[in-house]
Structures are given as C-alpha cells and as structure tokens.
Amino acid sequence: MIHLYCGDGKGKTTAACGLAVRAAGSGMRVLFVQFFKSGKSSEVTALEKLGVVTAHPGVHYGRYRSLDDGKKAEIRDSYGELLTDVIAHAAEYDLIVLDEAVSTYGYAMIDREQLMEFLRLEGSRREIVLTGRDPLPELTDAADYVTEMKKVKHPFDGGIAARQGIEY
C-alpha cells in the first residue's frame, strides 16, 4: 500500500522512520531514500545500524527556492537517476520510503509520470511511503493512507535553529 505523510508540521520523516524501524524489526527488507537532504542526518545513521539500506543524491543542494535554473537542472538529473535506480531495485525491498518525494514531485524535480507509474505498479506489491509538504491531488488520490502533520507551534518560528537529534 501507499502511505503519504504530509503537512507543515514536524514529524513526517520521523513517522516514516518509525515505520521503517517497525518493518526492519519484523524482518522486512527496507530501503530509505532521501531527496532534498544530505543523507547525513541522525535518522540515517540509526536506520543503517538496523540494517536499513539508505540512499540519497551525492550532493546536497540546499533550499530549493534559493537555487538558480542551472542548479535546478542539475537536481532534476540527479534525482531522476536516483528514482530510476530505486525503481530498478524495487523488487529487492518490502518497504520503500521516499523521503521528501512529495516536494520533489511538486517542484517537478523528478519525472512525475515515472513516479506515478511506479506507484501504480508497485503500490500493490510492497509498502511505499512518501513524505513532504503540499502534495498534489494525484498523490493524495494514489495513497491508501494519508496522514497530515499540522504545525501549531515550532521553535524555529522564534528563531531557534534545527537541533541535532531532534530536527536532524
């Protein structure tokens, strides 16, 4: 089935990690893929210790809105290669987490039809988790589970930077 964790609140990646831990603990083969992130966050370290396979682009590009068109084209190429690799190896896993795929899809940083076809084909064969803000309607429609994290209050709004072990 397809799981979608979305919204403006904290906890989307955390929820996906929790499901990955649960699945790994039950003997499932898990792939945890991160888009728009460096791959150096604390959850990646912990998941790898549990035998979860992790993947991310080789380069962290920073905030999307601050990038020029050249960097955006570079991201599209990099993320396209990563998604193609995930699709090629999907049969090796029982659970595939595509962290920040919702944002990647929304910004057209991946081939949208390629992702939708992947969800159509693999969503009935294995568990697929997508995370990110502002899902387009076709992603919500494709999902079997949709969970929205809603921000009520967050320290960042008061100028407190992300803290290791809590936000990354």
Biggest sheet strand line-up = 3-2-4-5-1-6
Overall 3D geometry?
Answer: globular
Note poorly predicted spans. Answer: none
Structural class: alpha/beta
The radius of gyration is 15 Å
Name the helix and strand elements from N-terminus to C-terminus, one letter apiece. Answer: EHEHEHEHHEHE
Summarize model confidence as the mean pLDDT: 93
Estimate the helix proportion, in percent.
25-40%
The N- to C-terminal Cα distance equals 27 Å
Secondary structure: number of strands: 6
Major pleated sheet: 6 strands, parallel
Number of helical runs? 6
- Strand percentage, roughly? 15-25%
What does this structure look like?
It is a single chain. The protein is of the alpha/beta class. Helices cover 39% and strands 17% of the residues. It has helices at 12-25, 42-49, 69-89, 101-106, 112-122, 137-142, and strands at residues 2-6, 30-34, 53-55, 95-99, 127-132, 145-148. It has a six-stranded parallel β-sheet with strand order 3-2-4-5-1-6.
